[in-house]
Amino acid sequence: MRSFFIILSLTIFASCSTHSNHEAAVGNPREYQVGAYLWQQTSGEYRALVHQAYNIARERVERDLEDKHNRKRAVIFDIDETLLDNSVGGAQEINLGLSWKENKFNEWVKSRKASAIPGTMDFVKFLVERQVEVFYISNRALSMYDDTYANLVSVGFPVKKENLMLMGEVHSKEGRRQQVLKKYDVIVYLGDNLSDFPGGFEKTSVETRNALVEKMQSDFGQKLIILPNPLYGDWERALPSDKSRIDLLKITP
Ligand SMILES: [Mg+2]
C-alpha cells in the first residue's frame, strides 16, 4: 500500500510539473528557440559539424601553403558563433522570458563570458605558427571593442588589436574585407552567416540568398567555410515580419 501512495504521489508531482512547464512555455516569446539552443549546447552533431568545418579549413590552408605566393596569406574569421559561443547569453534571455526586442546582448558582451567554440583554438594557433595572418571581422559595434578583445584573449585567442575589425557606420563587411585584400591573399573565410562571405548576401530575400548559394556552391568547403548556427542569423531577417513563423512552414510536399 505504501508503494502505491509513493507511485501515486510521484505521478501527481510529475503531472503538475509537466503542466507548469507547459504553461511557462506557452507564455514565453522565445519558446520556439529552445530546441535550437539545446541542439547547440548538447548535441554531438553540433560539435561534429564544427570539427568538420575546422578540419576542412585546416586542409585547405595546408594545401595552400604548398604553393608559392608573392604576398602574405591571411584567414578571415567572423566572431560570434564562429569562434565564440554566445548560447549561454541567449539562453539566459529565454529563461527570463525576454523577447528579441528586450535582448541583453550588450550586457552579455560586457560580461566577457563567451566560450571558445570547439576546434577553433587549435586552428587559430596553427595559423599563427605557420605565419598566416588572422583577421577577426565582426558586426559587433565599435563600442564593444574592449570587451570583445578581452573576451577573445581571455579564452586564449591570439589577437592583434589592428586585426580586430568591428562594425563602424557601415553594416556590410565588404569594405573591411577589401582592406585585408589590399595586403593579403585570403585563403579561406570562416563564418556562420552568409554575409560573413563575399558574394552580395547582405539584405537579400530568402529566394535571392538561396539562389546565390546555388550559384556559388563550389566555393563552399573551398574558399568559404560555414559553421552551423541554429540560434539566429540574417536568414531570420529575410523572413516576412507580418507572418507568424508557423505560417511560414512548408507543409505540403
Ligand atoms: Mg557570427
| Total count of helical runs of at least 4 residues | 10
Write down the Rg.
Answer: 22 Å
Oligomer: single chain
The CATH topology is Rossmann fold
CATH architecture: 3-Layer(aba) Sandwich
Bound molecules: magnesium ion
What is the helical fraction, as a range of percent?
40-55%
Broad structural category: alpha/beta
**Uncertain segments:** 3-24
Give the CATH H-level superfamily: HAD superfamily/HAD-like
Draw up the topology in text.
Elements (H helix, E strand, L loop, with lengths): L1 H26 L6 H9 L1 H22 L6 E6 L6 E2 L1 H9 L9 H7 L3 E2 L3 H10 L3 E9 L3 H11 L8 E4 L6 H10 E8 L14 H10 L8 E3 L7 H4 L16
Parallel strand pairs: 1-4, 1-6, 4-5, 6-7
Antiparallel strand pairs: 2-3
Helix pairs in contact: 2-3, 2-4, 3-6
The chain binds magnesium ion.
Magnesium ion binds next to loops.
Describe, in short, the structure shown:
This protein has 253 residues and is an alpha/beta fold. It has helices spanning 2-27, 34-42, 44-65, 87-95, 105-111, 120-129, 145-155, 174-183, 206-215, 234-237; strands spanning 72-77, 84-85, 115-116, 133-141, 164-167, 184-191, 224-226. Magnesium ion binds at residues 78, 80-82, 191-193.
